[in-house]
Design goal:
The complex is a heterodimer of chains A (176) and B (518).
Chain A (H helix, E strand, L loop, with lengths): L1 E5 L9 H9 L6 H8 L14 H6 L10 E5 L2 E5 L8 H5 L5 E3 L5 E3 L9 H5 L6 E3 L13 E3 L11 H5 L5 E5 L2
Antiparallel strand pairs in A: 1-8, 2-3, 4-5, 6-7
Helix pairs in contact in A: 1-2
Chain B lengths: L28 E5 L9 H5 L5 E4 L4 E4 L9 H5 L5 E5 L12 H13 L4 E2 L14 E3 L20 E3 L20 E3 L3 E3 L9 H14 L3 E2 L16 E5 L8 H5 L3 E5 L10 E3 L6 H7 L7 E3 L9 H14 L6 E6 L4 H10 L4 E5 L8 E2 H6 L4 H14 L7 E5 L5 H9 L4 E4 L1 H6 L22 H4 L4 H25 L5 H4 L6 E3 L4 H7 L2 E2 L3
Parallel strand pairs in B: 9-19, 10-11, 11-12, 12-15, 15-16, 16-18, 18-19, 20-21
Antiparallel strand pairs in B: 1-4, 2-3, 5-17, 6-20, 7-8, 13-14
Helix pairs in contact in B: 4-14, 8-10, 11-14
The chains are: A alpha+beta (176), B alpha/beta (518).
Chain lengths: 176, 518
Amino acid sequence: MKRVYPKEENCMNCRLCEVACIVEHSDSKDPLGAYFVEGMGFNSAAGEGIIDPADALEAGKPRPLNRISVSLRGYSSISTNCRHCSDASCVLACKNGSLYYDDAGRVRLREDKCVGCWMCLMACEFGAITRNPAAKNVPKVRKNGINHHCDLCPERSSPACVMVCPTGALVYEERL
Amino acid sequence: MYYEEPGARESLGLRTPKHEDLFHSHPEYKVERDDAKCIRCLCCVRQCPYETTFYDPMRNVVYDVHSNCVNCKRCEVMCPTQAIEIKKWGCGFRENHHWKFRDYGAAYKQSDTGAVVLTGLGNDNPYMSYFDRMVLDASQVTNPSIDPLREPMELRTYIGRKMENLEDFGKESFQEYPNILAEVPIAFAPMSFGAISLNFQKGMAAAAQELGTFFNTGEGGLHEDLLPYKDNAIVQVASGRFGVSKRYLMNSAACEIKIGQGAKPGIGGHLPGEKVTAEISKTRMIPEGSDAISPAPQHDIYSIEDLRLLIYAIKEATEYTRPVSVKIAAVHNVAAIASGIVRAGADIIVVDGFRGGTGAAPKIIRDHVGIPLEVALAAVDERLRREKIRHMASIIATGGIRSSADVVKAIALGADVVYIGTAAMLSAGCTLCQQCHRGKCAWGITTNRPDLLARLPVEMAKERAINLVKGWSREVKEMLGLMGLNSIESLRGNRLKLRGVGLTKLELETLGIRQAGV
């Protein structure tokens, strides 16, 4: 199965992969639309700082969250996302089957089933799972959000983060 | 600079800036950010190595210290919404055709610090370019042109001393000299590891290997990662003698003695101690953190006889298997100097014109010393031909080669091969911002800071350098074809293919070309 692999020596901490991820998972597929129309991540006109995505949800204007993130320590940075393990501990830990393998072997989420118990988040060895309070089509009772991880951009031949990386620090390929 | 530690400047022997200096920190460029488009991804903040762009989380604004901006264009290119535009600051000073920013900007800086103003890259003053005043010939009715897409076109050339005559060929008395084969007449110019990043040097080395041409180590030694490319390396022996050993000389295609550099003829080099990292110290064979100083002259060369000793010392060390090259800057009397160098035993002469680049040089020297490559090249070729010693050395031209047309013109003026330095950096993304000496190139070319190095992966540097040289080669083939030639060696020194436009009679004579229309 093809996965996204990072190359640490090529990563320069520009975080365009995060931007690309947000844009790809937005409705408008446009950075300005994703950040300004859909997102309430910040509101400079009102003089507010970056506000919590949960508050954005309350306001009814959730912006997609990035499913890939860059970690930085000293001079070295690396971009990481869900590894889509073939024996994923998150899938084992999920108590109601909302995490599952699809036909291609990707770890996917049934958004309507996830209850936000965070067993997947605890089980993941890579810290690749985050919570997404801004997910669409989710009842408001799950205020803490639901599982959020890389979906490998099912609509694209190659994930958006890989396409946008200026230095080829992310590669989408089959490895044993 | 006004917020730095007290005493930091005194330790360098510089005067601490006082409040009145603030009046002199005029910004040259302005970073204009369209706030309606800024999504606060902070890519520009992370990309700027020159401490220009910052983010204030309290006010949620991205703001700029405009006087630090050097117009390297990194933020402009990286911004995902194209919200950034770098502009010239304001209207500038009152119009003055005598005092330009390059004059008063430097004067202010020196009044602040009392130091020599350093800079990078090549001479940017508006001296006349002879390349722009020369045009190429083309075949019409009386002589057919050649279509390079349908007929063979040869760009390969041999570099090194050629035999005296062919009559003795096959006999015992026949003496053959070591030559190196370049598949294209374009090689990469000497740029040392330390001045440029290892990634860029590796990229050039890999590109040279794939193209069948050469890269030059510069004076900084041959890093062990470059050993797989040693058959395409020209190794340099400069006045600092960094990294020179028998092993170094043998890990090469040719050896080069550097006497001068076009950007700074007659002066040496200085790599500051803080830039001498573990890798550089290993490659240059100097202690970590110590200044790498190249003296102005080679301290064992004070005459042409001394040069002969060094050339033959290198030839002995390499057991006469490598051609030895001597690189000189284009200066007055360059023809006589070149003649002496050839007679001293050099197999290759490199002539570096005053537009040639540098990793760091005093601005005043870069801008005012040396002569144009075109006239120097013409003079050297003419002199060597007249003295019947042209076959004893190949000529490599460098210093301000901007396009394939410049390559063709330089070869028609008498060069065998050209070196490209700045053009090779352009292939890696250089925006000619002239900050090479500061060691924090935003494009990862002239830096060794690990986070900036990641901006220029080796594969990218290699691929783009190959593309550039391949593109140029195709254009050179087209130009050869339209002149009715099918080999680059038929063009060498073929000045009938050049005509001057708007040059004086004396300039035409110096270049050895005829006026257009004649």
